């Protein structure tokens, strides 16, 4: 458990083969409801690999527990060595080779931060090869809900082209750190003064956050193709 209601899980393919994905993609876990009806849930791959499509041995995900959720029942009771049926990778919420922008704003709430964790090696490479910078704006209710917060802070310290902005909507840290923001992610987005000519923004997490941030960025004048979105919906 990496937060009161979030479990970090790691899987290997049962056939022993490696798994290839592009940072930002997700897998789907397939299972049945109690009545036998088939369903599936999507989870972004959180594994910190090499930054490209090189195969990895472990597929890491972060799973939010939802009261009464069918996937929660499955994954909360899964023991070490247990198996699930899964497919993928899927999705295009990835950093694009064709981009020529000078700065990225990566915005997340909750488990929506997991694709950015997978992107860290690629982010380090892009800051060196293209000279672009990255601002990670991450919203959580309190410090206990800040997933992988120490990893992002350490990465920011080691990589000058990357800055980390935790946003606490309810309770700030007892010992505030540089970059901390009180309030929702929109406060930090506004403070970073998005540049309509030189920024590309990624939004991932709670649908309300994604929609509100999208509206804010459109009002500023950011071109819609420069706003890339992925919504995380807690589902039973």
TrEMBL record:
GO terms for molecular function: oxidoreductase activity. Pfam families: FAD_binding_6, NAD_binding_1. Its cofactor is [2Fe-2S] cluster. InterPro entries: Cbr1-like_FAD-bd_dom, FAD-bd_FR_type, Flavoprot_Pyr_Nucl_cyt_Rdtase, FNR_nucleotide-bd, MRET, OxRdtase_FAD/NAD-bd, Riboflavin_synthase-like_b-brl. Residues 1-96 form the FAD-binding FR-type domain. This is Ferredoxin-NADP reductase.
């Amino acid at each position: 458990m990496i937060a009161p209601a979030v479990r970090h899980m790691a899987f290997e393919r049962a056939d022993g083969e490696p798994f290839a994905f592009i940072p930002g993609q997700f897998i789907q876990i397939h299972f049945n409801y109690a009545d036998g009806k088939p369903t599936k849930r999507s989870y972004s791959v959180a594994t910190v690999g090499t930054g490209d499509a090189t195969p990895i041995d472990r597929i890491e995900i972060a799973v939010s527990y939802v009261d009464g959720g069918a996937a929660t029942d499955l994954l909360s009771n899964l023991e070490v060595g247990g198996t699930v049926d899964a497919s993928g990778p899927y999705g295009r919420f990835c950093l694009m080779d064709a981009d020529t922008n000078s700065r990225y704003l990566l915005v997340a709430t909750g488990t929506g931060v997991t694709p950015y964790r997978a992107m860290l090696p690629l982010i380090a490479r892009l800051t060196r090869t293209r000279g672009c910078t990255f601002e990670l704006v991450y919203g959580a209710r309190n410090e206990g809900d800040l997933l992988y917060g120490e990893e992002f802070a350490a990465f920011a310290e080691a990589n000058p082209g990357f800055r980390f902005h935790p946003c606490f909507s309810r309770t700030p840290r007892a010992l505030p750190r540089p970059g901390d923001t009180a309030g929702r992610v929109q406060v930090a987005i506004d403070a970073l003064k998005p540049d309509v000519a030189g920024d590309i923004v990624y939004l991932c997490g709670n649908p309300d956050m994604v929609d509100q941030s999208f509206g804010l960025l459109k009002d500023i004048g950011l071109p819609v193709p420069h706003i890339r979105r992925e919504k995380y919906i807690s589902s039973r």
